[in-house]
Amino acid sequence: MIKLNRETDYGVGILALMASDPQARHSAASLAEVRGLPQPIVSKILKHLARSDLVVSYRGAKGGYGLARSPDEISVAEIITVLEGPIALTDCIEDGRGACQYGSQCNISNVWGRINDVVLQALSEITLAETATEPNGGGQNPIHTLEFTGVRHVREH
User: What InterPro entries does the annotation carry (predicted)?
Assistant: First the structure.
């Protein structure tokens, strides 16, 4: 199963909420409350995002967190990469054929590479602005439909 970890899922949701008011400063407590998440987890994610220059941390009485760039300039692929690491469906995609004991005999790594490219491209084309949600859950953007082309299944006899 291809699945994002929970922290990445939460991180995208937190950033989507921040993108609904991109000029505002958001406290970890308010983001946690609106998203229904424990504040320590939200704080941990925000610190990670701040170290990666996706959000800016402001100190002081009117401190909090804000987006480092416009939501139109941040892709879902970038968020996933920051929170989870490189987007790679298999070890050989991330680390090369040498990462797999069967790398030299593998006849499907190029297919995995093509599939990975399509997934990466799709995630790169979706911006944080498109994920922006209103705090009350209204105004959510429709789900994107991805079209996978150029990948075909060939069965050898």
Answer: SUF_FeS_clus_asmbl_reg, Tscrpt_reg_Rrf2, WH-like_DNA-bd_sf, WH_DNA-bd_sf
**Which of 32, 49, 52 has the alpha carbon at shortest distance from 41?**
32
Q: Is the pLDDT of residue 143 over 60?
A: no
Specify which residues 66 forms β-bridges with. Answer: 56
CATH assignment at residue 86: 1.10.10.10
- How many Cβ atoms sit within 10 Å of the Cβ of residue 34? 19
Q: Is 58 among the domain residues?
A: yes
Can you give the pTM of this predicted structure? Answer: 0.79
Mean pLDDT on 134-145: 46
Beta strands in 46-156 (DSSP E): 55-58, 64-67
Domain annotation covers residue 1: no
Residue 75 DSSP symbol? B
**Amino acid (1-letter code) at residue 125:** E
> Could you tell me which residue, 35 or 101, shows the higher pLDDT?
35
Between 90 and 42, the higher pLDDT residue: 42
Residue 130: is its pLDDT beyond 60? yes
CA–CA gap between residue 40 and residue 150 (Å, rounded) = 43
Q: Which sign, positive or negative, has the C-alpha torsion 66, 51, 84, 145?
A: positive
Distance of alpha carbon 10 from alpha carbon 95, whole angstroms: 27
The residues facing 56 across adjacent strands are: 66
